Amino acid sequence: MNGVEGFMYPNEVELVWSILIVLYPYITGLVAGAFILASLERVFRVEAVKPTYRLALLTALSFLLVAPLPLQLHLGHPERSPEMYFTPHSTSAMAMFGYVYLWYLMAVLVFEIWLDYRREIVLLWQSSRGLKRWIYWIMTLGSSNISERSLHIDERVGWIVTLVGIPSAFLLHGYVGFIFGSIKANPWWSSPMMPVVFIFSAMVSGIACVMVLYMAVTKLRRKKIDMRCVDTIAMYLFYTFIIDFSLEMLDLVHRIYEADESFRSLNFMVHTKLYFSHIVIQIFLGTLAPLVLLAVTQVTTLPEAARKRCYALAGTLTLIGIFAMRWNVVIGGQLFSKSFAGYTSYKVSLVTREGLLVSIALILLPLGILWVLVKLLPPWPEETGPHAAAAD
Predict the structure, then answer these.
(1) By Cβ atoms counted within 10 A, which residue in 65, 158, 162, 302 is the most buried?
(2) pTM of this prediction exceeds 0.85
(3) What gap in Å lies between CA 352 and CA 349, rounded to an integer?
(4) Can you tell me whether residue 272 is helix, strand or coil?
(5) The domain made up of 10-242+349-391 is a member of CATH 1.10.3470
(6) pLDDT grade, residue 143 (50/70/90)?
(7) What is the rounded CA–CA span in Å between residue 287 and residue 284?
(8) What is the DSSP string of 199-257?
(9) 335: three-class secondary structure by DSSP
């Protein structure tokens, strides 16, 4: 049997997890990374990234609202999802996701956004008319006190919430890596490095996402990009990316050194079925290319226009590379047989519940939600002041 390539048992032919399960860790990673970027200003007082603070929070919320949808579409019975709350299963990592998700959504992210925007919400409620007035009235939650003392309390409580939110963000995405890393039967996934790699790759993707969004939205608003802000974000992205890449290389070196019975099969798969997605897209286009672009901006003095192009291209390639990494982990881990004797293939269908069109819609949906949130709660300082509220 060991000399036969291409043989798979009948129960190994179909992949259990599809592209929707690729989207799930990708989206949660964007959430965690965007929140970590926001915490740089709130907790660590990195004033340079302040222009992106509120945008990062709204971005995290937009993607977090969509995060459970890939799982529910994959399961096929979304009406059963509340059962995880009514019949808790403490020994199931997947079941505990519901509590982690609810904690991070309501107790951390929504609460922090409300505290940060409470003054603007009250001013907008007082100055708006019609339906928007009712919406802002609901958002005040009955709290219209915006005295100096009250706002100072909001600031202190918000700082504590952000501080609690940092490990919560790590927990939200780290447990996804924990699920994969704890599957001992699959050598592609079974690694103690998996949760750590997932966390750092999440930070990389979230920071890159906010950087690209900030530059794109500022351009659409015909405003001047704060280069000090973008330069600082790119610096953090570069150093975080180096750590993430180093961890992945450490895991690779360990696998090569260990060279157990699965190594030949995994090595064959990387050089054949996953060559394009792993070597070309993830490593060269999604890792080495953005690292080189970011390194150039860090060690040389480029003109402002050149830096903008480097940052936009590096951020976009980073997002593609992290998606490829999620693809290679989820899909790649299912392409070989448990006996290491054969391999299968995966083709994404176009118009099905777990097809390409649905996946594209799930990626675009958070951007639509973000557009609505930005309209309701402008993240730009010049549009949330008392004069802006009065003019609305």
Answers:
(1) 162
(2) yes
(3) 7
(4) coil
(5) no
(6) confident
(7) 6
(8) HHHHHHHHHHHHHHHHHHHHHHTT----HHHHHHHHHHHHHHHHHHHHHHHHHHHHHHH
(9) coil
